[in-house]
Amino acid sequence: MQSTSALESSVLVLNKFFAAVHIVNAKRAFTMLCKESAEVVSVDDGQYNSYDFSSWIDVSAFKLECGLSDNDQYESIKTFSLEVRVPRIIRLVVYDKLPKANVKFNRKNLFARDNNKCQYCGKKVPTSELSLDHVIPRTQGGTNHWENIVCACTNCNKHKGGRRPEEAGMKLICKPVKPRHCPVIQLKLGSNKYNSWKQFLNNAYWSVPLE
């Protein structure tokens, strides 16, 4: 399929030693492939195959033409002259460093940490209907950090107001903590679409920020 979302789909980036270092969108991945600073890594029947951009275009054309079974696991991008599959994994051909481990404190990671669930009633709701609540209100000295902010649905947030949970007769489902690893990656690994990532994300690499 082809859509704007295909260009925004996630691609795992490995360093030259096949260690996971980052996640980028497909648009950025194609840019690196075109500049020959990266190659595609495809996991086929448990084996790694590497392709430069030109070879990947040929492989995409062959698999699309033959309608091979893994085709439905890939989005594809169409141009006037070709159709190419969005890779799941690319490998930097020079870069050999690992970034400093750190999980960014932002809305995306907070929503992912709490799995889009209100931490008071447990209801899972779309991001657009979810808010962030200060467990200890800022008016009572509460600060912006992992241990003091949770996801809350509109009703629970309204009921709690500017009070602490116990003052509002409410209780947290889970104690908020700073995640050791990027929460977003855990959500993606729950999808069959990203199965090929798992063998590159073993315990040795879980300290790497994948965002």
UniProtKB/TrEMBL annotation:
The lineage of its organism: Bacteria, Pseudomonadati, Planctomycetota, Candidatus Brocadiia, Candidatus Brocadiales. InterPro entries: HNH_5, HNH_nuc, NA-targeting_endonuclease. CDD domains: HNHc. It holds the Pfam family HNH_5. This is Endonuclease. PANTHER family: OS07G0170200 PROTEIN, SLL1193 PROTEIN. Keywords: Endonuclease, Hydrolase, Nuclease. One of its GO terms (molecular function) is endonuclease activity. Residues 105-158 form the HNH nuclease domain.
